[in-house]
Amino acid sequence: MHHIFRPATGLMNRLTYPQKFLLISLLFLLPLAVGLTILISLLNTDMAFARKELDGTAYLRPLRTLLAHTIEEQLLAERYFSGETTLEPQVLAQHEQLKADLAALSAVEARLGPRLGTSVQYETLLNQWNRLDAQLLLRSVADNSAAHGRFITTIRDLMNRVGDQSNLILDPSLDTYYLMDTVLLDLPESLDLLAQTAGVAGPIAARRALLEGERNRLTVLYGLVQANSASLDHDLKIAFNEDPTETLRPALSRPTQDFTAAVTTLLASLDSGIIQPAQVQLSPADLRGQVEASLTASFALWDQSIGELDRLLLARIRAASRQRLIVLALSGLAVLVTVYLLVGFYLGTMGTVGAFRQATASMISGDFSQQVKLATRDELGSVASSFNAIAAALVESSAQRQAIVEHATHAILTFDRRGVIDSLNPAAERVFGSPDLVGQPITTLLGNNLGALQTVASIREMPGHRHDGTAFIAEVAIGQAQSQADHPVWIAFVRDITVRKQAEAERNRLQDEMIRAQAMVLAELSMPLIPITSAVMVMPLIGAMDSERVSQLQATLFHGIETQRARIAIVDVTGVPVVDTHVAHGIIKAAQGVQLLGAELVLTGIRPDVAQTLVGLGVDLNAITTRSTLQSGIAYALGGRL
């Protein structure tokens, strides 16, 4: 194994101790500096990521205020258009408040908009505001609800844009991610749904009667509000459980309970007072009170949640800053201690070298009685104990080295500066096929570049030539020795590895063939095409889908439809763990190809989490027939189409 370190040993032997220490220090400090740079960069990236999230929460605050006052104006305007004309001053005052909110939002847009890329959505918001402002009191109840609804939608669109561009939607921690989900998605949706519910239920309570279709619409809103409340409760529970500081639960439990209680009370009143009875029993005053209580609880929970989100983000920034400081301090301390120890090591080593130099001078003068005495306990101490026997051991060592060379299985040759062979061992005679090689150029046996052969290097391969002209593959290591006449001598260690290389090539060829065969078998087994009838076939997908498997899905499906003339192809994704945008678009393209072939694609096995992912990705599956399970898909194919 020593030949592996021969280049390092050769380099170190050419350097003085200060140069060695400098080289080793540089090699030590270089990866340390690179590692520190990467670590500090990661910490800085984490802090910048969290700071951008704080920009997002700062932008969301005026949007929250604008959303709250818009809903309040919508409810007041609906009452005004329903006949309460005395509310006109309040409607106008509320409208002035909205103008002030827009001015505050404009200041935030000027400061944060360029970084968050919200200019398009902000301009859309201003356009919707201008439409609302132009005809505030010139509308009907329906027109008022529609106008305010469009304005609320643009506010939520701007909120979503802020969440996307400020990294909030990409938050890496579960506690802050689900808290973000509450602030950015659940509560704004809850406020929108409560406003819509009040807009539908208010006229019903005022007239004490239901018009055609109002019960169904109110029932739908009832279900959406209930589902939103459950989703919000689910997200906050996850945030509570994943919070390492255990401060979210005591901070948000009470406002969460107030919100849930207010929404539950409102839903119960809607169910018992409007939806279930034949005659409307819920009074307008009671309805307004419960809606206002729900909205107040929603805004209170939003304010508390975004405050906790800011607190957690600031804590994350402070933690990263502390980590950066600790890393820099420890690294600086380690460098100082290392330099201190290196200086001490150098001084101790130079003292040892001085003792050896004195003993060597005595030996050169012929006095072998001089002994080296060292106080050190390191490896140099054991060297000193054997240094006194060097002269006697040289002769014996020379004889041993000669015996090793003579009986070595590797070919060993020495050659001079001109490349002329000086000596060789019996193994070299066998490898190159001739004992009469002394005096011949080394380049006739190994390669054709003397400079390469005179470069000290570890094991490498090069072409070899026997004395009779036949070629072989040689494994060569080059060393260098210094003669007494100050003439450099190179040593070549040569081994014939032709048979080994041929065996390796054959083994690699067989291995490649086996891998290709296994890949073909696995590909066929992981994506089978199963005929149910002559016109219906099923393809169950199992395992993760990548680009290659999506392409294979399409090719197998198209080929199967063409060959079997099937009319319906059922693709079941129950066994696919993750359905992302790429997979979804691949299935859509497969459906389009199936339609071009005159058949229909039925997609089954979409789990709730997959459906939520597809909705979040914005994938349009309207052109594809879907069924929840493979069984229902087969039943559809057999019963509804054949």
Describe it.
The chain is α/β, with parallel strands linked by helices. The protein has 3 domains: 39-327, no CATH class; 409-503, PAS domain (Beta-Lactamase), CATH 3.30.450.20; 527-639, Transcription Regulator spoIIAA (2-Layer Sandwich). The chain has helices at 6-13, 17-81, 88-116, 119-134, 141-165, 174-207, 214-242, 248-275, 284-364, 379-387, 390-407, 426-432, 450-453, 498-526, 547-564, 581-596, 608-617, 630-639, and strands at 411-415, 421-424, 457-465, 471-482, 488-496, 530-531, 536-542, 568-575, 600-604, 625-627. The strands form 2 sheets. A 5-stranded antiparallel sheet has the order 2-1-5-4-3. The chain has a 5-stranded mixed sheet with strand order 6-7-8-9-10, sandwiched between helices. Helix 6 packs antiparallel against helix 7 and helix 7 (214-242) packs antiparallel against helix 8 (248-275). It is elongated.
